[in-house]
Design goal:
The protein contains six helices and eleven strands. The chain is α+β, with helices and mostly antiparallel strands and 240 residues long. The two termini are 32 Å apart.
Length: 240
Amino acid sequence: MASGKLKRVVAVVLGAAIVSSGCATPPQTGDNPPLSALVDETWRAEDFEYRIGAGDELGVRFLVNPDLNAQVTVGPDGSAVFPLISSVKLSGLTVRQADAKLSQIYAGVLRNPQVNTLIYNYAAGQVYVGGEVREPGARNIRGEMTAIQAIMESGGFLDTARTRKIVVLRKRTGDTRVLMRTFDANAALRGADGSDLRLLPGDVVFVPRSAVAEVNRIVRQYITNSLPFSMNYELSRDVP
């Protein structure tokens, strides 16, 4: 979890950023808006799961009707064309959610359909790595990449990096708050279970110089969508 001081800085900056961007008006409770209105550190299971997006190549498998097995590509509108039922929008869904949605739709034309969705190829996305790394900037991501891998692709840590408090920011579909998580890179490099974090397109990995140094700037840029890479992958997804 983030330190109390880091939480307070993020809360103050998020409040200012939300007001300046015109997205919302945070509650007025003194100088600092409530942290719960701006940052969510309670991650749900689905927050760690990959969400289907445009350009992903999917395999659809029917346990009872294997003759309907197909491979489809998600189009720019987030939809894919399937046997018998035509176009279905899947962008923004996890694989489990896609299974449930397709099974429900196929129940209208098949008896007891059991549909499994697989991701054959991931569309390219981007994450942003900033702070005390040698080559900050956008990094392409296709498939699985962890925060440590993204940092290594960014040239590794500078000597001034505070490696025990790496910040990861993520936007949850349908939620105006920002998900924030901190982790200990030293533990991750030692191979400690659960210490690293698998990234999703649109994530920001920030390596601070200290617990609060420059975190305000990166959070402001993240909230106002002014980081120098495309955020469309994550931000345009609306779960049906």
